[in-house]
Design goal:
Blueprint: E1 7-11, H1 15-25, E2 32-36, H2 69-76, H3 96-99, H4 116-126, E3 134-135, E4 138-145, E5 154-160, E6 166-171, E7 173-176, H5 192-198, E8 203-205, E9 220-223, H6 227-237, E10 244-247, E11 261-264, E12 267-271, E13 276-279, E14 284-285, E15 290-293, H7 311-314, E16 321-322, E17 326-327, E18 333-335, H8 344-359, H9 368-382, H10 387-390, H11 396-409, H12 434-441, H13 443-451
Parallel strand pairs: 1-2, 1-7, 2-3, 7-18, 8-15, 9-10, 9-15, 10-11
Antiparallel strand pairs: 4-5, 5-6, 12-13, 13-14, 16-17
Helix pairs in contact: 1-8, 2-5, 8-11
Length: 473
């Protein structure tokens, strides 16, 4: 059992940080909860950041990728401060009744797959009960264990971005809820660095994509098979010289064929001297004007360098996370929403419910050796200690959230700090019944049917309107 925890720092006021704060409050044992947020408002990744042409983004504190620094500098040049990968016409890839928090439905008459504006407004409303805990315009630049020891608390160093003042504060526990979609992950492609040097204006990453305007009448190669790549490819294909070339090693569940898109296998090499690209089948495509990399994002925890000097280079590989949440060596350091290919808001709630009960000493953690053993076994089963460890594509995410729900239910009543009746303590996440699981497993099909409606999709409010219906077996 952990030593008593009364003070908790949360890094990030995005969806996962907000949910975590709510679950901590409901335990009624924590005397001080602080949420550090570098922006001026809540929402994290759901804040849209336009691209000012005169505001370059420095590459310092960037995590390591497979590419050289030259390519990473090019694709991150001119990014605004605290950039997010939101683009103008983004709509969610999950239906709102699936992605919503358990206690907060989206407003009536919300389109089935909401716009980014709708989601940000939803999060602003959701944040109201915990907004008093947030320190806006504060960036965390250091988190280190006090006296370098486990379970002796943490020193959190933050900077007020308005005054420039740096403050060091002590907390019993720290929760990293800072997300992992703000720094691009570049693939190991022969010639990528040379292309970035020869044609810097023609190399892009989805982190900087805002609209398809710059691709009008250009011959475009898009690389990547995830949900964002699937969506962005159709937006660019409507503007560029047809067909759009789309390279994918694997196809996303959100993939759809289109007459103005030609699908190609994995990209092997770029040749800047003749603007060509070579693929795994030996095919060479000439005269490429623009390259768009929709190849995902790197985990970034620069504030943890005191904990592990190699974390800047290793990223998520440096973190032995028990149940994808608790640092096995420092269990009072927790991480919310590191898994990928998930239903983000409900998964954050499921993790937050466990973290709140563990930190309130109502749920025990195994000892360090058992947690390390779990990490080792799970890494082996999932195929690695990095991104594969955190990949929970459905139905893995459902199985994971069901396990967390069952774990949450094991919590003891305990005693409240306020002396109140403890029988009604704690907040429960969503319980994944048959209909919720069915909805999760059919979300990608629904999204493709929704997109097929074209301009009429804004009128679609339910999945029944797309021809889907749940019949419990």
């Amino acid at each position: 059992m952990l030593d008593p925890i009364r003070t908790v720092a949360i890094i990030g006021a995005g969806p996962s940080g907000l949910a975590t704060a709510k679950y901590l409050l409901e335990e009624r044992v924590f005397t001080n909860i602080v949420i550090y947020e570098q922006r001026q408002n809540v929402g994290g990744i759901w804040n849209f950041t336009p691209l000012p042409p005169d505001q370059p983004s420095p590459a310092k504190n960037a995590p390591c990728t497979h590419s050289t620094a030259q390519a990473i500098d090019i694709v991150t040049d001119h990014l605004p401060r605290f950039n997010t990968p939101m683009y103008e016409e983004l709509e969610t890839n999950l239906p709102h009744m699936l992605m919503q928090f358990s206690d907060t439905p989206f407003p009536e008459r919300t389109q089935l797959f909401p716009s980014r504006e709708t989601v940000l407004h939803y999060l602003e409303e959701y944040a109201a009960p915990v907004k008093h805990l947030i320190r806006f315009d504060h960036t965390v630049h250091g988190v280190r264990p006090k006296n370098g020891k486990e379970n002796r608390g943490w020193e959190v160093m933050s900077r007020d971005l308005n005054s420039g003042r740096t403050v060091a504060e002590s907390f019993d526990a720290v929760i990293a809820a800072n997300g992992h979609c703000d720094w691009p992950l570049l693939p190991a492609i022969e010639g990528l660095d040379a292309w970035s040097k020869s044609h810097p204006e023609s190399l892009h990453h989805s982190v900087s994509y805002k609209n398809a305007g710059r691709f009008v009448d250009k011959r475009v190669l898009l690389v990547g098979g995830g949900p964002s790549g699937a969506d962005i490819s159709h937006q660019i294909a409507a503007k560029c010289k047809q067909p759009l070339l789309r390279s994918q090693t694997t196809k996303s569940p959100y993939h759809t064929d289109a007459p103005n898109i030609r699908d190609l296998p994995g990209l092997v090499a770029l040749a800047p001297e003749d603007h060509s690209a070579r693929f795994t089948d030996g095919n060479i495509e000439p005269n490429i004007d623009e390259v768009v990399l929709c190849t995902g994002y790197a985990y970034s925890f620069p504030f943890l360098s005191a904990l592990d000097p190699d974390i800047h280079a290793k990223g998520i590989h440096a973190l032995p996370l028990y149940q994808n949440i608790f640092h096995a060596h420092f269990p009072t350091l927790a991480f919310i929403e590191t898994p990928e290919m998930i239903v983000p808001f409900p998964l954050a709630e499921s993790q937050a419910a466990v973290v709140a009960r563990v930190f309130a000493r109502r749920l025990p953690l195994p000892d360090r050796q058992d947690m390390e053993e779990w990490v080792a076994i799970t890494s082996s089963q999932r195929g690695g200690d990095g991104r594969a460890f955190h990949a929970l594509q459905p139905p893995r995410d459902l199985e994971y959230m069901k396990r967390l729900y069952a774990w949450t239910c094991e919590a003891e009543d305990g005693a409240c700090e306020t002396g109140e009746d403890s029988s009604r303590r704690g907040k429960m996440p969503r319980e994944w019944d048959a209909q919720a699981c069915w909805l999760r497993m059919n979300a990608a099909k629904m999204r493709k049917a929704f997109a097929a409606k074209g301009a009429r999709r804004c009128e679609i409010l339910s999945y029944e309107e797309l021809g889907f219906s749940f019949a419990e077996r």
